[in-house]
Amino acid sequence: MGTFLTESEVAEQLKVCPRTLQRWRQTGLGLPFLRFGGLVRYSQADIETWSAKQSALSTSEVRQSGV
What we know:
By secondary structure, this protein is α+β, with helices and mostly antiparallel strands. It is 42% helix and 15% strand. It contains three helices and three strands.
């Protein structure tokens, strides 16, 4: 089984506010997430995959995730 992180842990890792992660979830953008009952968790493997896809060569590139 993989490693699952809390919203606060992911926000710290990505250097964004927890509110940013909440907004991404509400709009369907950003990272994949899991729900265990009422708890939101993020897979470390999903974070790494998502982060790798955020790479761009210019500001005019359109990103797949919309973020």
